[in-house]
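User: I'm putting together notes for a lab meeting next week and I want to include a structural view of one of the chains we've been expressing. I don't have a solved structure, so I'd like a prediction I can at least talk through. The sequence is below, exactly as it appears in our construct file.
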Amino acid sequence: MAVAVSNCYFSVLTSTVKFRSAVSAAQPSFAASLWSGSSCHTIKPVCQSNGAASNSRKGDKSRSEVKKEGVKKKLIGNGDVLSGGGGGKKGRSQQAAYKPFGTQRKEKKESVADQKEKKLAEARNLQDADFLNAVVKVYCTHTAPDYSLPWQKQRQFTSTGSAFMIGDGKLLTNAHCVEHYTQVKVKRRGDDTKYVAKVLAKGVDCDIALLTVESEEFWKGAEPLHFGSLPHLQEAVTVVGYPLGGDTISVTKGVVSRIEVTSYAHGSSDLLGIQIDAAINPGNSGGPAFNDQGECIGVAFQVYRSEEAENIGYVIPTTVVSHFLNDYERNGKYTGFPCLGVMLQKLENPALRACLKVESVEGVLVRQVEPTCDAHNVLKEGDVIVSFDDVHVGCEGTVPFRSNERIAFRYLISQKFEGDVAELGIIRAGEFMKVKAELNPRVHLVPYHIDGGQPSYLIIAGLVFTPLSEPLIDEECDDSIGLKLLAKARYSLARFKGEQIVILSQVLANEVNIGYEDMSNQQVLKLNGTPIKNIHHLAHLVDSCKHKYLVFEFEDNYITVLEREGALASSTSILKDYGIPAERSSDLLEPYVDSVVDGQADQEELGDSPVSNLEIGFDGLIWA
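Assistant: Thanks for the context. Below is the predicted structure for the 624-residue chain, given as structure tokens.
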């Protein structure tokens, strides 16, 4: 995990557990922890920062609080370093039953000495292990966008994390370690030289980034790590990295506690994860986790913080890492994990199964299908999915996994790549049939991350328009965004690819916009009667407008009217007064291409279901 000395935590919270990516001084998706009520449950990738961003809208922690947290984390970590295992108690007690008491005491002393010697030998072997030399420290300088003032960026800050060599001149780390990077450097164990690294690919949804270093000096004598298979429960695991508390490499040891589909805090996605009890602290992000054979079984990336639980850390398994690397090799870039795009309901109730004419105890009910997914063409609300590529789906939405284990059905979907076709066995009105659907990455109406890093914006006569995004919501805070926009962000699905919720972020006061100065964070629906599809479409409508007036229609039936020629003429003076380099972002200079099929934009808004599993308040519904 990347280490954050300042208020640079990724937080994900729910009502019981509300997961959330927040943006703060450490990074707009490296965010300050949010606390709710007396108890707080957070899953967070953490990044140790050596500087703080200048965004004054966020509350910073006092130095005393930071120190208290640091002490708490150190206490939690105590005793986890190189904890050795004992052995043979049962055998000793059986032998001791036939020996005098004095003999028992002598044998016990010898056994303790043997255990100490064994621990020392293990420590010496680990100290000299080659795989430790493949773990490097990452130094990153971040410059995050200012989503409220999208033409500029926040003050830069630095953080440290971990990475490791995988061969072919490449390194693996976490995506949140290099989020909004402007410079990345790495340093090998036992070396004082820092080498500049280049980011080849970032997988936000799986929280993995691929780096390379061009300097040949860096790779001299380097031995890459070898990936192992998925571990089993109670197998020993060793986490290596550069967490807070010192500058040298750190090793902590524990066991595998659980393997299941879990929420990834940084990408707000659900993928396979390994839960361990080894100490993972800020700065371990991106570091490898090893089994007893010295094979890498995953990448440390987040922890679960709660007053009711402790020692819960998470590792990205090698299955997810391999998917990321194969995706990069196939396409020359990272395309992402695909989705089926359906909301499913469990079929545990016998009456519900009987009503749907499902005779066996299996299957999940399709409650909603996203319009942007290919499954929208083959699945209907009320269908029951009973198999995925001939693997039977249970009534709780699970499928067989290894021996005597079951796992969430969406695990099978995550094994596919963009463009792959899945065969679904369904029951429709009592009849069994098979259909095929192409799998592609999900289309978010309100994205969790901005592609390219810098948000789009358009300024018309001082009116600043920008797409609604989760980082903007976090930056502006819920109160200033308003309940309607929050409800759309949480419950509305995209009707077509490229759809955005465009909002009026603020008004830069000028005589041309008198009377509108107090408007902020309101969705613009139409321009001169034409529904707005996205911000690029809005820019196109303004550029091609021949009317005397520009009439903007907002939510709540509010309208804003500007005289077109006067609005365009005022742009130069407004930009100069507010020190803004351009009236629009560079991506809006490209010609507008309308890819929307006729009728898609005229569909009613889909706003009756949560858009992600994080927003669903009970266990009966799941997004696949």
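A couple of points you could mention at the meeting. Confidence is low (pLDDT under 50) at residues 1-40, 52-109. The CA atoms of residues 254 and 278 lie 4 Å apart.

User: Perfect, that's what I needed.
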